[in-house]
Amino acid sequence: MIEVRAPFTGEVIDTLVESNRADVAAAFSRARSAQHGWQRTSVQERSRIILRFHDLVAQRRDEILDLLQREAGKARRDAMEEVLDVLIAARHYGRDARRLLAHRQVRGAIPLVVGAQVRHVPWGVVAIIAPWNYPLSLTASDAIPALLAGNSVVIKPDDQTSLTALWVRDRLLEAGLPEDVVQVVLGRGDVVGPWVIDEADYVMFTGSTRVGRIVAARCGERLIPCSMELGGKNAMIVRADADPERAAEIATRASFANAGQLCISMERIYAHHQVHEAFVEAFVRRTNALRLGARVGWGFEIGSLISAGQLERVQAHVDDAVSKGATVLAGGRARPDVGPSFFEPTILSGVTDAMVVCDEETFGPVVAVRSVESDQQAIELANDTEYGLNASVIGRDRGEARAVARQLRAGTVNVNEGYATAWGSVRAPMGGMGQSGLGRRHGDEGLLKYTQSQTIATQRLLSFGAPAGWTDERWGAVLTSAVTAMKRLRLK
Predict the structure, then answer these.
(1) Contacts of 102 (CB under 8 A, 6+ apart)
(2) Cα gap 241→411, rounded to integer Å
(3) Where are the domains of the chain?
(4) What are 308's strand-pairing partners?
(5) Predicted confidence (pLDDT) per residue in 189-225, tens digit
(6) Taking Cα atoms as reference points, which of 169, 137, 125, 159 lies closest to residue 1?
(7) In sequence order, which residues have a C-beta less than 8 Å from that of residue 282 and are 6 or more positions away?
């Protein structure tokens, strides 16, 4: 049995039956059988269902906000970001699926002689292995494009946040999705995850880089594709022309949203020495003003860490840094008086390479701040990591800030924001470089990755073979002249 515990209190709020190997196989069998009919369903009808799902999420907003707070321990404003993300993704792909999936005519090998059409064919059954930190967003927003592409979906949520995945499935069915097209299997990732991968035609995984390597290797053994958003050690650069107060406001949200349990949140800040002191003063003041809370509802900014294990990790990173000479400018303590897994939003200075927090993702409300002499030094420090997920540049001169952004090795870079600007721009792709992942969410790629391209080429008139009575040499000369003429005519 799976015990779902409320991070706010540690109390069990529900118990669920863990899926066994036979359950997983049966779920994929049902999904595979249903997929054939779903693929034949028109894109317009698929879109209608997803847009109806959009409406249901909006109508039942308070219901899912309550569930996210109880199950994931979030502050309500962080839970609200998940709801907004799902609404944006459903609207975008629900409206754009017809355009993205339309058959496309392309020029054949020889104009007028050969015609070619490109089709987008679903993979079959897509497995979504979703994390606990954004259980609504990283379940629904990944399922939406996979379903619109004509795939069935099997969701394997983290066992700490399974109730949210089940809520998503219920709303999809309520919107009109055929029952077997979406399945949910439950259980520990290290047990159920491999069974899921062994049955899937495509895997979408969000989680740590360590586990991502395991998932990628297993997919590679089966020669099935995968897409992954993995870890990050995201950096913010505060330029010399930045407004310290505005930069501090952005940094507070970017570092401590969802108690720092956000793959694209900031864990390193490099502030130009000309504004460093004023920025740090404002950042510390704003951080100290953040309110921690352990109840369902509005009125506080910092929720709980997901578990005692996550609390131990965050505390260990801070303790290691302090023992090696780092200074705590704000926070730095667990808060059992608020709840069993609460930790204060924490700002560190004096972090060095010898400290775990320097290079390793903390995934909690901890950020290190450092003064730099120039943009170039900040760029070099920001890029000095194996990760490359998200980054931020703050400055009044947007042109210069964008010039800095172009030199950062990260899949998304936000100018004058921390993460929401790039993440919310769903027409643009989102994903990691380096050890931060494979593939992309959002943009056209975010839907088309769930399809295989199929080319159907039709020969008209002449054959590619030599006409009767012609030698291969003569025919080869004619074809060479034809191809050369196409270059002169600028035909691709």
Answers:
(1) none
(2) 25
(3) 2-106+118-230+442-451, 234-428
(4) none
(5) 999 999 999 999 999 999 999 999 999 999 999 999 9
(6) 159
(7) 244, 245, 247, 248, 249
* pLDDT computed for residue 373 by the predictor: 98
Q: Give dist(CA 300, CA 342) in Å, integer.
A: 13
d(CA 382, CA 307): 30
Q: How far apart are CA 172 and CA 176, in angstroms?
A: 7
pLDDT at 77: 97
- Other C-beta atoms closer than 10 Å to the C-beta of 463 total 8
pTM of this prediction? 0.95
Task: Name the CATH superfamily housing domain 2-106+118-230+442-451.
Answer: Aldehyde Dehydrogenase; Chain A, domain 1 (3.40.605.10)
Give the mean pLDDT per block of 10 residues along the chain (492 residues): 96 97 98 98 98 98 98 98 98 98 87 86 98 98 98 97 98 97 97 98 97 97 97 98 98 98 98 98 98 97 97 98 98 98 98 96 98 98 98 98 98 98 96 97 97 92 82 89 80 62
- In whole angstroms, give the CA distance from residue 419 to residue 234: 10
Tell me how far CA of residue 146 lies from CA of 52, 132, 220, 367, in angstroms.
Answer: 16, 20, 21, 35
Distances (CA, A) of 334 to 33, 231, 303, 305, 306: 50, 24, 12, 10, 13
Specify the CATH number for 234-428; select among 1.10.10.10, 1.50.10.10, 3.40.50.150, 3.40.309.10: 3.40.309.10
pLDDT of residue 491: 64
Measured distance CA(290)–CA(299) in Å, rounded: 10
Distances (CA, A) of 129 to 144, 449, 476: 14, 16, 53
User: How close are the terminal C-alpha atoms of the chain, in Å?
Assistant: 60
Tokens of 49: 């269902």
Cα 361 to Cα 233, 235, 330, 356, 378, distances in angstroms: 5, 12, 19, 9, 19
Active site residues: 229, 263
CB atoms within 10 A of CB 453: 10
